[in-house]
Amino acid sequence: ACGTGSFVLASARVLCREVGLDFTHISIQVHGIDINPTAVLISRACWVEEFGDEIQNSVERMRIPFFIGDAVFGREVEFGDQQVIDGIREASVNTLTGNLPWAALSSMPEVPYREHLDQCATRLGVRETGSRAIHQNISTTFALEATRLYLEADGTFGLVLPRDTINGRAHERFRRCSFRDVESPVEFNVTRILDLRNEVFD
Fold it and tell me: What is the value of pTM for the model shown?
């Protein structure tokens, strides 16, 4: 879920203006996906505003790399770009970054999407039981499933997760890496944790 595209824009900005990669190449190497058409529209507008000069100076047709669709469960979405998203998934990426959806699974309405998330968390081995299940956040399920679907074997990720991921009882299975002991294990190795409040925005 790319939201308004801040992470994708920041990555492209660094690659283009600090690393010096060709903008045409960058526009086909970074991707943002969101199920919310409004979020994708805003992301596309921000992309054009940020890289207007590069787009105008290009002799090639430019792709604006934000797409409407269900990045995790692949459900059909009206006006969606599912074929493009399937192609991104098949090709895999070397970096995964973003601020994933935050919400307690128990607080979501009784809709098919909640059932998908519940089943996914169970399949990944991180679905909590008892009183802990009430406060379990969907962000860890998204992180694992996005890693499984999109990230190449030696890829890296940088994800914003709620604080209780590292100290809350509702994520004990995630911290115990239970996702490595399931039928289809996920390679998800955390090498560094940053406290955004104290280490980034202080």
Answer: 0.87
Judged on CB neighbours under 10 Å (0-12, 13-18, 19+), 140 is buried
Tens-digit pLDDT profile for residues 176-195: 999 999 999 999 999 999 88
DSSP string, 86-153: HHHHHH-EEEEEEE----BGGGS-SSHHHHHHHHHHHHTT----GGGGGG-BTHHHHHHHHHHHHEEE
Q: Which residue carries 């199920």 as its tokens?
A: 35
C-beta of residue 44 within 8 angstroms of C-beta of residue 64: yes
Asked if residues 5 and 47 have their Cβ atoms less than 8 Å apart, the reply is yes
Q: What percent of the chain has pLDDT over 90?
A: 57
Q: What is the DSSP letter of 18?
A: T
Asked if residue 202 has pLDDT above 60, the reply is no
